[in-house]
Amino acid sequence: MQTGLLVRGMFFKTAAEYTKSRYALSESVEEIMQTWLDMARHEYEFNVRAKPCVREYLGYLRKNNVRIGLATSSDPYLLEPVLKNNGLHEYFDTVCYTSEVGKNKSFPDVYIKTAERLEVKPNECIVFEDIPEGIAGAEKAGMFTVAVYDRASEKNSDYLRKKAKKYILGFEEMMEES
């Protein structure tokens, strides 16, 4: 089994501990994690691009006075550069991290916290997600769920189509409906 597949489901620190042990690395676990974070940050800052039409759709929502929140499992160290890189930061009224609520996206907590910060009821929210855990958590929060196709979660597309209230291939579809 390839190491990448083995560490895929591990917590970040556990994966670093495994890697250190497996390859007898001299770096500390913290140094390994920081190296990985720095590599990811570089990618987010310079290479990760937003989905097509997402900026236009967010602009449309903003123009129509729709409050917009971002519920994310990303770390602020990684999220900030990707938002800046794509010119998206200005569109969000609030950002809520799973680390703030202590539970991952399969639980409703991060979505409920985001709605609270936006001062809206959960049943008034529409959540766009590209992972099964996100759809499950938003659904548990009582929110309308829209699954967005993503190549990284393509293997879950059947589940996403069945579980979400709506499934879109891209934000172009939302622009067409606006």
Counting DSSP E segments of at least 2 residues, the number of strands comes to 5
N-to-C CA distance = 47 Å
Residue fraction in strands: 5-15%
The helicity comes to 40-55%
**What's the helix count?**
10
Compute the CA-based radius of gyration.
18 Å
Low-confidence stretches: none
CA-based shape:
globular
Strand order of the largest sheet: 3-4-5
Largest sheet: 3 strands, parallel
> Would you tell me the overall average pLDDT?
93
* Overall SS class: mainly alpha
Helix-strand pattern, N to C? HHHHEHEHHEHEHEH
Tell me what you see in this structure.
The chain is mainly α and 178 residues long. 51% of the residues lie in helices and 11% in strands. The strands form 2 sheets. A 3-stranded parallel sheet has the order 3-4-5, covered by helices on one side. The longest helix is centred in the N-terminal third of the chain and has 18 residues, at 29-46. The protein is globular, with a radius of gyration of 18 Å. The termini are far apart.
Nutshell version of this structure?
This protein has 178 residues and is mostly helical. It has helices at residues 3-7, 12-22, 29-46, 54-63, 76-85, 98-101, 109-118, 132-140, 157-163, 172-177, and strands at 69-72, 94-97, 126-129, 144-148, 166-168.
List the helices and strands and how they pair.
Layout: H1 3-7, H2 12-22, H3 29-46, H4 54-63, E1 69-72, H5 76-85, E2 94-97, H6 98-101, H7 109-118, E3 126-129, H8 132-140, E4 144-148, H9 157-163, E5 166-168, H10 172-177
Parallel strand pairs: 1-2, 3-4, 4-5
Essential attributes:
178 residues; globular; mainly alpha; 3-stranded parallel beta sheet; two-stranded parallel ribbon; single chain
